[in-house]
Amino acid sequence: MAELTVYFDGSCPLCAREIAFYRRRRGGDRLDWVDVSDLPDGEIAAGLSKSAALARFHVKEQDGRILSGGLAFAHLWSALPALRPVGRLFRVPPLAWLLELGYRLFLSLRPLMQKLAGPKECGCPSTNK
Prior knowledge:
Blueprint: E1 4-8, H1 13-24, E2 32-35, E3 43-45, E4 48-49, H2 50-55, E5 58-61, E6 66-68, H3 69-79, H4 84-89, H5 95-117
Parallel strand pairs: 1-2
Antiparallel strand pairs: 1-5, 3-4, 5-6
Helix pairs in contact: 3-5
């Protein structure tokens, strides 16, 4: 069982490129990567709908707990050895709160950034792990 399941919007060029970056990092092969845009409408995981998964970044821990937003990124970073110190740092308040605020700002700018990112050419594997 993977230590973390990462839910992402593979139809978003910006998101796909960022996820491709994380997948290439050491430890990325130990995580499950789920492109939510490829899945049918409905529940993706217990307590997580496709629409919610497309609206915000989510991860699921081994115990089934689902995290979203800045905290989800902090847990993803903690699972990758090169980013682990940063991930652990941003899991602690008040840095966790600042990360969430930054993530909410990103979400408001995401539509414009998606247009600027252009077509998806991220080199992502076509299948989920």
